[in-house]
Amino acid sequence: MQTVTLNNGVNMPIIGFGVYQVPDAEECENTVYEALMAGYRLIDTAAGYMNEEAVGRAIRRSGVPREELFVTTKLWIQDAGYESAKLAFHKSLQKLQLDYLDLYLIHMPFGDYYGAWRAMEELYREGKIKAIGVSNFLPDRLMDLILHNEIVPAVNQIETHPFQQQIVNAAFMKDHGVQHQSWAPFAEGRNNLFSNELLTTIADRHNKTVAQVVLRWLVQNGIVVIPKSVRKERLIENFNIFDFELTTEDMAAISTLDARESLFMSVDDPEVAKMLGNLKVDL
Protein backbone atom coordinates (compact mmCIF):
# COMPACT_ATOMS: atom_id res chain seq x y z
CA MET A 1 0.00 0.00 0.00
CA GLN A 2 1.44 3.38 -1.02
CA THR A 3 1.38 5.87 1.84
CA VAL A 4 2.11 9.50 2.63
CA THR A 5 3.83 10.58 5.83
CA LEU A 6 1.94 13.19 7.84
CA ASN A 7 3.64 16.06 9.67
CA ASN A 8 3.74 14.05 12.90
CA GLY A 9 5.33 10.97 11.30
CA VAL A 10 2.12 8.93 10.95
CA ASN A 11 1.77 7.02 7.68
CA MET A 12 -1.54 7.41 5.85
CA PRO A 13 -2.64 5.30 2.85
CA ILE A 14 -2.79 7.43 -0.28
CA ILE A 15 -6.05 5.79 -1.36
CA GLY A 16 -9.02 4.99 0.82
CA PHE A 17 -12.72 4.28 0.69
CA GLY A 18 -15.26 7.03 1.43
CA VAL A 19 -18.82 6.45 2.59
CA TYR A 20 -20.44 9.84 2.02
CA GLN A 21 -24.05 9.43 0.82
CA VAL A 22 -24.26 5.78 1.87
CA PRO A 23 -26.77 6.16 4.72
CA ASP A 24 -28.39 2.73 4.36
CA ALA A 25 -26.87 0.67 7.15
CA GLU A 26 -26.83 -2.70 5.38
CA GLU A 27 -25.48 -1.29 2.13
CA CYS A 28 -22.81 0.71 3.94
CA GLU A 29 -21.66 -2.26 6.00
CA ASN A 30 -21.48 -4.51 2.95
CA THR A 31 -19.61 -2.04 0.75
CA VAL A 32 -17.07 -1.20 3.46
CA TYR A 33 -16.57 -4.93 4.03
CA GLU A 34 -16.01 -5.48 0.31
CA ALA A 35 -13.60 -2.56 0.21
CA LEU A 36 -11.57 -4.04 3.06
CA MET A 37 -11.55 -7.43 1.35
CA ALA A 38 -10.31 -5.71 -1.85
CA GLY A 39 -7.33 -4.26 0.02
CA TYR A 40 -8.45 -0.81 1.13
CA ARG A 41 -7.10 0.11 4.54
CA LEU A 42 -8.20 3.75 4.85
CA ILE A 43 -11.90 4.18 5.62
CA ASP A 44 -13.34 7.71 5.71
CA THR A 45 -16.65 8.46 7.42
CA ALA A 46 -18.17 11.30 9.48
CA ALA A 47 -20.73 11.79 12.21
CA GLY A 48 -22.79 13.74 9.69
CA TYR A 49 -22.90 10.79 7.28
CA MET A 50 -25.00 8.82 9.77
CA ASN A 51 -23.19 5.55 9.07
CA GLU A 52 -20.42 5.23 11.66
CA GLU A 53 -22.11 2.20 13.27
CA ALA A 54 -22.28 0.39 9.93
CA VAL A 55 -18.61 1.15 9.31
CA GLY A 56 -17.74 -0.23 12.72
CA ARG A 57 -19.63 -3.45 12.03
CA ALA A 58 -17.86 -3.88 8.70
CA ILE A 59 -14.47 -3.43 10.34
CA ARG A 60 -15.21 -6.08 12.97
CA ARG A 61 -16.67 -8.42 10.37
CA SER A 62 -13.62 -8.08 8.12
CA GLY A 63 -11.18 -9.45 10.68
CA VAL A 64 -8.49 -7.06 9.43
CA PRO A 65 -6.12 -6.33 12.34
CA ARG A 66 -6.74 -2.88 13.83
CA GLU A 67 -3.11 -1.84 13.40
CA GLU A 68 -3.44 -2.29 9.63
CA LEU A 69 -6.37 0.14 9.38
CA PHE A 70 -6.52 3.91 9.10
CA VAL A 71 -9.96 5.11 10.21
CA THR A 72 -11.11 8.71 9.80
CA THR A 73 -14.25 10.38 11.06
CA LYS A 74 -15.29 14.01 11.40
CA LEU A 75 -16.81 16.43 13.90
CA TRP A 76 -19.98 18.14 12.69
CA ILE A 77 -20.65 21.89 13.15
CA GLN A 78 -23.26 21.56 15.89
CA ASP A 79 -20.71 19.76 18.07
CA ALA A 80 -17.96 22.34 17.59
CA GLY A 81 -16.76 23.54 21.00
CA TYR A 82 -14.45 22.23 23.70
CA GLU A 83 -16.82 20.08 25.78
CA SER A 84 -19.17 19.17 22.93
CA ALA A 85 -16.28 18.03 20.72
CA LYS A 86 -15.05 15.66 23.42
CA LEU A 87 -18.52 14.21 23.83
CA ALA A 88 -18.95 13.87 20.06
CA PHE A 89 -15.57 12.18 19.72
CA HIS A 90 -16.39 9.52 22.30
CA LYS A 91 -19.80 8.99 20.72
CA SER A 92 -18.17 8.40 17.32
CA LEU A 93 -15.61 6.08 18.86
CA GLN A 94 -18.38 4.06 20.50
CA LYS A 95 -20.34 3.80 17.25
CA LEU A 96 -17.23 2.67 15.39
CA GLN A 97 -16.43 0.17 18.17
CA LEU A 98 -12.83 1.37 18.26
CA ASP A 99 -10.37 2.24 21.01
CA TYR A 100 -8.77 5.09 19.06
CA LEU A 101 -9.03 6.99 15.78
CA ASP A 102 -6.29 7.35 13.21
CA LEU A 103 -7.56 10.75 12.06
CA TYR A 104 -10.20 13.12 13.41
CA LEU A 105 -11.22 16.11 11.31
CA ILE A 106 -13.20 19.28 11.94
CA HIS A 107 -15.76 18.87 9.17
CA MET A 108 -16.44 22.56 8.46
CA PRO A 109 -14.77 25.88 9.38
CA PHE A 110 -17.84 27.13 11.25
CA GLY A 111 -18.97 27.37 14.87
CA ASP A 112 -16.55 27.17 17.77
CA TYR A 113 -13.91 25.21 15.93
CA TYR A 114 -11.21 26.77 18.11
CA GLY A 115 -12.72 25.13 21.18
CA ALA A 116 -13.02 21.91 19.23
CA TRP A 117 -9.38 22.09 18.18
CA ARG A 118 -8.22 22.50 21.80
CA ALA A 119 -10.23 19.41 22.73
CA MET A 120 -8.76 17.50 19.79
CA GLU A 121 -5.24 18.53 20.78
CA GLU A 122 -5.86 17.05 24.25
CA LEU A 123 -7.29 13.82 22.81
CA TYR A 124 -4.26 13.59 20.52
CA ARG A 125 -1.84 13.99 23.42
CA GLU A 126 -3.74 11.30 25.35
CA GLY A 127 -3.19 8.89 22.46
CA LYS A 128 -6.86 8.58 21.56
CA ILE A 129 -6.25 10.04 18.09
CA LYS A 130 -3.14 9.40 15.97
CA ALA A 131 -3.54 12.62 13.95
CA ILE A 132 -5.91 15.61 13.86
CA GLY A 133 -6.89 17.79 10.96
CA VAL A 134 -9.57 19.79 9.23
CA SER A 135 -11.85 19.72 6.20
CA ASN A 136 -13.03 22.50 3.90
CA PHE A 137 -10.61 25.06 5.35
CA LEU A 138 -9.40 27.76 2.96
CA PRO A 139 -5.87 29.18 3.39
CA ASP A 140 -6.94 32.17 5.53
CA ARG A 141 -8.70 30.06 8.16
CA LEU A 142 -6.04 27.38 8.01
CA MET A 143 -3.31 29.97 8.57
CA ASP A 144 -5.25 31.48 11.47
CA LEU A 145 -5.62 28.05 13.09
CA ILE A 146 -1.93 27.29 12.63
CA LEU A 147 -0.82 30.61 14.11
CA HIS A 148 -2.88 30.45 17.28
CA ASN A 149 -2.61 26.78 18.27
CA GLU A 150 0.16 24.39 19.19
CA ILE A 151 -0.54 21.58 16.72
CA VAL A 152 -0.54 22.16 12.97
CA PRO A 153 -3.36 20.24 11.25
CA ALA A 154 -2.02 17.06 9.71
CA VAL A 155 -4.62 16.97 6.91
CA ASN A 156 -7.02 19.29 5.11
CA GLN A 157 -9.70 17.47 3.15
CA ILE A 158 -11.09 19.70 0.39
CA GLU A 159 -13.01 19.41 -2.87
CA THR A 160 -10.41 18.43 -5.47
CA HIS A 161 -10.97 17.02 -8.96
CA PRO A 162 -9.99 17.90 -12.55
CA PHE A 163 -12.41 20.84 -12.66
CA GLN A 164 -11.37 22.26 -9.26
CA GLN A 165 -7.70 21.49 -8.84
CA GLN A 166 -7.00 23.74 -5.83
CA ILE A 167 -3.58 24.81 -7.10
CA VAL A 168 -3.23 27.80 -4.74
CA ASN A 169 -4.56 25.89 -1.73
CA ALA A 170 -2.32 22.92 -2.50
CA ALA A 171 0.78 25.10 -2.60
CA PHE A 172 -0.17 26.75 0.69
CA MET A 173 -0.73 23.40 2.40
CA LYS A 174 2.55 22.01 1.10
CA ASP A 175 4.42 25.06 2.42
CA HIS A 176 2.94 24.50 5.89
CA GLY A 177 3.20 20.71 6.09
CA VAL A 178 -0.53 19.98 5.79
CA GLN A 179 -1.44 16.91 3.75
CA HIS A 180 -3.87 17.57 0.91
CA GLN A 181 -6.78 15.11 0.73
CA SER A 182 -9.48 15.13 -1.93
CA TRP A 183 -13.20 14.76 -1.46
CA ALA A 184 -15.37 14.25 -4.57
CA PRO A 185 -12.42 13.13 -6.72
CA PHE A 186 -14.87 12.34 -9.52
CA ALA A 187 -16.80 15.61 -9.04
CA GLU A 188 -19.77 13.26 -8.45
CA GLY A 189 -19.92 12.91 -12.23
CA ARG A 190 -20.66 16.58 -12.81
CA ASN A 191 -19.53 18.34 -15.99
CA ASN A 192 -19.84 14.92 -17.66
CA LEU A 193 -16.52 13.92 -16.16
CA PHE A 194 -16.76 10.26 -17.15
CA SER A 195 -17.32 11.12 -20.82
CA ASN A 196 -14.87 14.02 -20.99
CA GLU A 197 -13.03 13.77 -24.32
CA LEU A 198 -9.57 14.54 -22.95
CA LEU A 199 -9.86 12.16 -20.01
CA THR A 200 -11.32 9.45 -22.26
CA THR A 201 -8.42 9.80 -24.71
CA ILE A 202 -5.85 9.48 -21.92
CA ALA A 203 -7.72 6.51 -20.42
CA ASP A 204 -7.84 4.70 -23.77
CA ARG A 205 -4.11 5.23 -24.27
CA HIS A 206 -3.35 3.55 -20.94
CA ASN A 207 -6.08 0.91 -21.29
CA LYS A 208 -7.68 2.25 -18.13
CA THR A 209 -10.98 3.90 -17.20
CA VAL A 210 -11.54 7.61 -16.74
CA ALA A 211 -12.04 7.00 -13.01
CA GLN A 212 -8.64 5.29 -12.79
CA VAL A 213 -6.98 8.14 -14.69
CA VAL A 214 -8.48 10.76 -12.37
CA LEU A 215 -7.38 8.89 -9.25
CA ARG A 216 -3.92 8.30 -10.72
CA TRP A 217 -3.62 12.02 -11.54
CA LEU A 218 -4.45 12.89 -7.94
CA VAL A 219 -2.07 10.44 -6.30
CA GLN A 220 0.75 11.44 -8.67
CA ASN A 221 0.20 14.94 -7.31
CA GLY A 222 0.63 13.55 -3.79
CA ILE A 223 -3.06 13.96 -2.94
CA VAL A 224 -4.84 11.37 -0.78
CA VAL A 225 -8.06 10.11 -2.39
CA ILE A 226 -11.20 8.50 -0.97
CA PRO A 227 -13.37 7.37 -3.90
CA LYS A 228 -16.76 5.87 -3.16
CA SER A 229 -18.75 3.22 -4.96
CA VAL A 230 -21.45 0.85 -3.79
CA ARG A 231 -20.62 -1.56 -6.63
CA LYS A 232 -18.00 -4.19 -5.89
CA GLU A 233 -16.49 -4.17 -9.37
CA ARG A 234 -16.11 -0.38 -9.32
CA LEU A 235 -14.48 -0.21 -5.90
CA ILE A 236 -12.00 -2.87 -7.05
CA GLU A 237 -11.39 -0.90 -10.26
CA ASN A 238 -10.77 2.30 -8.30
CA PHE A 239 -8.16 0.55 -6.18
CA ASN A 240 -6.28 -0.72 -9.23
CA ILE A 241 -4.29 2.42 -10.07
CA PHE A 242 -0.74 1.48 -9.18
CA ASP A 243 0.18 -0.53 -12.28
CA PHE A 244 0.46 2.47 -14.62
CA GLU A 245 1.76 6.02 -14.57
CA LEU A 246 0.56 9.15 -16.32
CA THR A 247 3.14 10.92 -18.44
CA THR A 248 4.24 14.51 -17.97
CA GLU A 249 2.17 15.33 -21.04
CA ASP A 250 -0.90 13.62 -19.55
CA MET A 251 -0.53 15.58 -16.32
CA ALA A 252 -0.14 18.87 -18.19
CA ALA A 253 -3.17 18.15 -20.35
CA ILE A 254 -5.37 17.41 -17.33
CA SER A 255 -4.26 20.68 -15.75
CA THR A 256 -6.04 22.54 -18.58
CA LEU A 257 -9.42 21.32 -17.27
CA ASP A 258 -9.20 23.43 -14.12
CA ALA A 259 -12.10 25.90 -13.87
CA ARG A 260 -10.89 27.10 -10.44
CA GLU A 261 -14.31 27.10 -8.81
CA SER A 262 -16.41 24.76 -6.72
CA LEU A 263 -19.02 22.57 -8.34
CA PHE A 264 -20.79 22.17 -5.01
CA MET A 265 -20.50 25.06 -2.54
CA SER A 266 -18.11 27.83 -1.60
CA VAL A 267 -17.31 27.78 2.11
CA ASP A 268 -16.40 31.47 1.97
CA ASP A 269 -19.96 32.34 0.86
CA PRO A 270 -21.91 33.89 3.80
CA GLU A 271 -25.11 32.18 2.67
CA VAL A 272 -23.38 28.79 2.76
CA ALA A 273 -22.09 29.55 6.25
CA LYS A 274 -25.59 30.56 7.34
CA MET A 275 -27.22 27.48 5.82
CA LEU A 276 -24.73 25.01 7.29
CA GLY A 277 -24.62 26.80 10.63
CA ASN A 278 -28.39 26.46 10.98
CA LEU A 279 -28.44 22.83 9.84
CA LYS A 280 -29.14 20.52 12.77
CA VAL A 281 -28.50 16.83 12.27
CA ASP A 282 -29.81 14.11 14.56
CA LEU A 283 -26.48 12.60 15.47
Automatic annotation (TrEMBL):
CDD domains to which the protein is assigned, alphabetical: AKR_AKR5F1
UniProt key word Oxidoreductase: yes
Positions bound to substrate: 107
Keyword match NADP: yes
Enzyme active site: 49
NADP-dependent oxidoreductase domain location: 16-257
MF terms (GO), sorted A to Z: oxidoreductase activity, acting on the CH-OH group of donors, NAD or NADP as acceptor
Site (Lowers pKa of active site Tyr): 74
Family that this chain belongs to: Belongs to the aldo/keto reductase family.
Protein name, per record: Diketogulonate reductase-like aldo/keto reductase
